Amino acid sequence: MYLANMQDGSKSALPPKDVERLIFVVQGSIALSVESGTTHSLLVDSYAYLPANMKHSVISDKPSTLVIFERRYTAVGDYHADLVVGSTDKQPLLETPGEVFELRKLLPTSLPYDFNIHIMDFQPGEYLNVKEVHYNQHGLLLLEGQGIYRLGNSWYPVQAGDTIWMAPFVPQWYAALGKTKSRYLLYKDVNRNPLI
User: Fold this and answer.
1) Would the pTM of this model clear 0.85, i.e. be above it?
2) What domains, with CATH codes, occur in the chain?
């Protein structure tokens, strides 16, 4: 997970062989061209998942900030992930029984995909109702607002632009503080056995 600050007209290189990529636009806009010849315009809160070895190019239309996730794809059986291009606001709100935050998943939950990106929205004063512990690692970028994050027995004030990496089995908890909503983008391993 990294931030890419692109100037007007900047271009990206391809990731290494067998590496999948997800691009999320935080600020500005980009033109994404894929090997089929299709070009997609990605604005703020838009994203694209590019399967491993898919040829593509990214050109910024103006100064832009992108969150980019790159990782070696973990194949399973004959399943193959497909290109996904979307916008956060077009993804359905998912039920979160017992919780108050709003949740959207940006990628399909089907077996070909070995990670997912969640967008979580909290109104001021809202918080996770339980302290969570997960077997998988997480990467988080606070996109809007501010709050406090608990990792293990430590408490961390966070604001828009801050990132957190959460190791497996570390207890975690979040509360939104301030007068505006907070939104974070969360990376999560899925659909693969973490012990293999």
Assistant:
1) yes
2) 2-87 (2.60.120.10), 91-189 (2.60.120.10)
